[in-house]
Amino acid sequence: MAPVGGIPRSVVADRLPSVVAIVVLGTFAALLLGFRSVFVAVKVMALNLLSVGAAIGALGDGYP
Questions:
Q1: Residue 23 vs residues 19, 59, 63, 64: alpha-carbon distances, Å
Q2: Which residues pair with 4 in a beta bridge?
Q3: How many CB atoms lie within 10 A of CB 12?
Q4: What is the residue range of 49's domain?
Q5: Is 45 part of any domain?
Q6: Is the Cβ–Cβ distance between 8 and 1 less than 8 Å?
Q7: Tell me: the pLDDT tens digits for 32-55?
Q8: How many folded domains does the chain comprise?
């Protein structure tokens, strides 16, 4: 497999779920502290994930 930025792809794939979890939890905590509302924090996170999914889907359609 080809390296990603000099790091073997298997290392990147192994650590990706934990990095994503840390980013999502950190963002949720920051939103919770900033808005002091669980509903707003969850809503923002859901819409953010939806927009990222749409962007990935659009890239997938453009590059077969």
A1: 6, 22, 27, 29
A2: 7
A3: 14
A4: 9-62
A5: yes
A6: yes
A7: 999 999 999 999 989 988 888 888
A8: 1
